[in-house]
Amino acid sequence: MTQFCLLFVLGTFVARAFAADPALPFAMTWSSKSFGPDGPWQAVQIGIGTPAQQVALYPGGTFRSHLLTPRICSNVTLSPNACFASAGGLYAVESSTTALGTIIRFPAATDFTHGGLQVQGTQGIGTLDQMIIGTSDGLRNTITVPNVTIAVYDDIAAVYPSGSIKALQVGTFGLGYLGTANQSFTQPGQPTINGSLIPGYLQAANLTPSNSFGLQIGSVRSKIKGSLYFGGYDQTRICGDISTQQGAFAGIEPDDDGKKGLIDLLDIAINVIDGSSPFNTSTISNLLATGNSSIGPALSVSMLPEAPYLDLPKSSCDAIAAWLPVTYNADLGLYTWNTNDPRYTQIVSSPSVLSFVFRKGQSNTQNITINVPFMLLNLTLEAPLVTSTAPYFPCNAQSNGRYSLGRAFLQAAFVGANWNANNNQGVWWLAQAPGPNIGSQITVQTIRDQDASISPSSNDWAASWKGVLVPFSGKSASTATTSPSAATNTASSLNTTNSSNGLTQGAKAGIGAGIAVCGLGIISLCAFLYLRKYNRKNETPLRGISTARTTASSINGVGSPHEKYRDGGYGPAELNSHEPAELNSHEPKNSHQIQNDQVQLVYELGGDVYK
Ligand SMILES: *[C@@H]1O[C@H](CO)[C@@H](O)[C@H](O)[C@H]1NC(C)=O
Ligand SMILES: *[C@@H]1O[C@H](CO)[C@@H](O)[C@H](O)[C@H]1NC(C)=O
Ligand SMILES: *[C@@H]1O[C@H](CO)[C@@H](O)[C@H](O)[C@H]1NC(C)=O
Ligand SMILES: *[C@@H]1O[C@H](CO)[C@@H](O)[C@H](O)[C@H]1NC(C)=O
Ligand SMILES: *[C@@H]1O[C@H](CO)[C@@H](O)[C@H](O)[C@H]1NC(C)=O
Ligand SMILES: *[C@@H]1O[C@H](CO)[C@@H](O)[C@H](O)[C@H]1NC(C)=O
Ligand SMILES: *[C@@H]1O[C@H](CO)[C@@H](O)[C@H](O)[C@H]1NC(C)=O
Ligand SMILES: *[C@@H]1O[C@H](CO)[C@@H](O)[C@H](O)[C@H]1NC(C)=O
Ligand SMILES: *[C@@H]1O[C@H](CO)[C@@H](O)[C@H](O)[C@H]1NC(C)=O
Ligand SMILES: *[C@@H]1O[C@H](CO)[C@@H](O)[C@H](O)[C@H]1NC(C)=O
Asked: Cystine design at 357: which of 25, 100, 267, 514 (Cβ 3.0–4.6 Å)?
């Protein structure tokens, strides 16, 4: 190929710091803006290059970050009247003095949503540049990570079932990879070029305790702030059981075969946690397999924060949609809410949830349920997907056999991974995340180098939605009577105490039913008071995570020195058009001094941060 083409070497390696100071988890800063065209979604804010260009990116995917360039805006096919791609900020590699754009130009995968969207266009160009991350961390403010491995896209768009091409609005921010701090690229006769993966770099530089992350995407409209930590997690983002899976988190570059980071989805149900049911029955289950005998006992899915929808078989989307006042939009493969149907408001404003039942801990004897309130599934289609905005239900019926759960699901779920656990085989976690009522305190917990487990908070999930999801008190707009009920697998009660751990399921169901029958007056009062408060606060922007670190328990040093060469990284797919790859057989080493200015440099993120 051309002289620009580098031979990419599969080898990556792990190094450990031997520093005495215990490192703390590092909090990413989120943009104060929200993004579409199928959100609103939250994104992390970074500065990239020198001088720093401000860009918001969806956290997701392994290895590289993916950035959109100003060339997308000058392409009239992709940007006919407006440049939607500039929503999150564009990155011009040629304007950065720290970019290595002219040295390293290996091609990158086109579809950085890993099948979550049908992304087409010209392959991305790989390069390296520095990233300035953070500001919500009260201790360190920002860290400059040199030579981060990225790919830039001049011509890329999502293709919808109708064949129409829609520009993407926001790139992605890579979340690391198994046992990897650096990705090495070589070309004949040239020195090796090392690109940093952010969580691995942070650990190797002794800036965080582990090569790991903890993430909740959160919700714009329900005012659940995004949360992303490296080397730890915010424990308040976890309610109840945690499911631990061995292996890598999904979204492997360059070409995810859809077989990594899977968890078995056993069923999808509709439950009403409190109040009367807006449906003509209280619990509706078996929605995953309804109308499709080929699904069997489980459907393996991956978690893709880089993608927007619930990517499920059309049969499952249709089975869910049959219970909802929605209309299938065949052009987009999505469902729009019928806002004139009285059930629409009843469903999206009450504690009615879409419950996802997963195999827990890869065991065939346990399961874990993640409840996603329909309020979070009342998302908005905007231009360029539609000409006038429309509320939609984000089940993607055109997933082309790639099943995954994207941001729509991850609004309500916590995911995290420790890339180095189990000697770099990795573990990842899935748990129920709370609603907005978790207080302003954060409880940052450390993930240590080999930690394979994390701990939940004692927060009660139902209480975290209290006052936001208003129990429905009327008769279902459909026929038949409603019976007050508490959903079977859900920790459900109207009790607003912090923890329901002491209550049996039976007691909780009893409380739920009792209050549903007796407490309608109280509920209406609560709803009234809440709505009044909400309306008054409507103009207030989202509040930022408190800069105060409340607790950071069990902060230990980096785990025992542990070095292991591994060939992780890109599979052979990327190499097909290149010379044969050789495994890079570097010895592991521990050379990673961090210059003071990199650690201490304070960078103001252009006002685009939470106030
Ligand atoms: C503009 O985008 C379209 C659609 O992706 C692509 O086919 C075309 O080559 C692009 N034009 C230029 C000049 O890059
Ligand atoms: C970034 O990579 C280039 C090419 O390998 C190297 O010359 C440069 O020193 C690196 N920068 C830092 C800060 O490590
Ligand atoms: C990249 O990493 C390899 C392996 O540790 C090392 O030998 C090489 O010197 C590094 N290159 C640069 C430019 O730092
Ligand atoms: C039924 O499920 C299978 C996957 O098990 C899928 O390939 C097929 O498209 C589904 N059928 C429909 C109509 O969605
Ligand atoms: C309940 O509602 C569903 C969907 O809205 C409908 O298909 C079903 O026939 C209804 N059942 C009864 C008993 O009314
Ligand atoms: C989940 O586990 C509960 C309790 O063991 C069981 O009753 C239920 O049937 C399971 N659900 C699924 C979908 O397997
Ligand atoms: C549903 O979404 C629309 C915007 O698409 C919004 O105007 C409406 O308030 C939302 N309804 C609820 C109950 O959140
Ligand atoms: C809420 O739960 C606590 C125990 O956690 C119990 O003491 C209290 O009576 C409950 N309140 C209501 C209203 O049920
Ligand atoms: C939750 O716990 C805090 C502190 O432990 C306490 O002040 C508060 O009253 C509790 N809330 C409820 C609803 O019990
Ligand atoms: C990663 O590469 C940089 C140079 O690009 C080098 O300074 C650093 O030591 C490497 N990090 C590790 C952990 O090998």
From this structure: 267
